[in-house]
Amino acid sequence: MEKNTKPKSGWKQDPERVKRDIIEAAMAEFAQNGLSGAKIDDISARTSTSKRMIYYYFEDKETLYMRALEAAYSKVRQGEEKLDLDVLPPVEALERLVSFTFDHHRKNTDFIRMVMIENVHHADYLNASTVIRGLNKKAIARLETLIARGEASGDFREGLDATELHWQISALSVFNVSNKPTFSSLFGKSLYTREGQDRLRERAVSMVLGDVLKR
């Protein structure tokens, strides 16, 4: 079957939209098939954009993978910024952050699958991205500010580390998605009903607060 390499209509009118569409399609393709298994032809087929335009904007598959990975991390960090944690009391702010992270990861399974793929590749592309490093530094700084406020108010125990807290929140939220197929196969799907997910979110919040709050 002959592949269409002609630019499709609309790209000149809104190139930024076209690039966003390509990245969204690429995220789905990379999440499903990995970096080595994903094909530019299949990414093109997911969009209204030609294969030629994908190469025009992103040069090669590796660059597109990097941009898709950066977009995935940008989405979660932008969501965190919109939580306005600084205007909330420390305990409520932490509850909101944990709940948001759990729900974001549950609703954005492509992001978690790309993180899993990066682990297979020893985080080579993530390490090469100054964009992602900058985003994650902001995430840790946000937690440092929250910890300082919680310690000052007397709500949080002393000696908390922002990176360790981020690890704890991520571990609870990522496992829920990354291990869903195997966990469901072994133990059934009850935890992945709406009610089951609501309970797990509450448990995640409870576990984090149980470790952080001053006793």
Helix-and-strand structural type: mainly alpha
Q: Any idea of the CATH class of the domain at 64-212?
A: Mainly Alpha
Shape: globular
Number of alpha- plus pi-helical segments? 11
Major sheet size, sense and barrel closure: none
| CATH domain fold name of the domain at 64-212 | Tetracycline Repressor, domain 2
> Which architecture of the domain at 64-212 does the CATH hierarchy give at level 2?
Orthogonal Bundle
Uncertain runs: 1-9
Rg is: 20 Å
CATH superfamily of the domain at 64-212: Tetracycline Repressor, domain 2
> Roughly what is the average pLDDT, rounded to an integer?
93
- Report helical residue fraction: over 70%
Order of helices and strands: HHHHHHHHHHH
Termini separation comes to: 67 Å
Strand content: under 5%
Question: How many β-strand stretches?
Answer: 0
GO molecular function: DNA binding
Keywords: DNA-binding
Organism: Maritimibacter alkaliphilus HTCC2654
InterPro entries: Homeodomain-like_sf (IPR009057), HTH-type_TetR-like_transc_reg (IPR050109), HTH_TetR (IPR001647), NicS_C (IPR041474), Tet_transcr_reg_TetR-rel_C_sf (IPR036271)
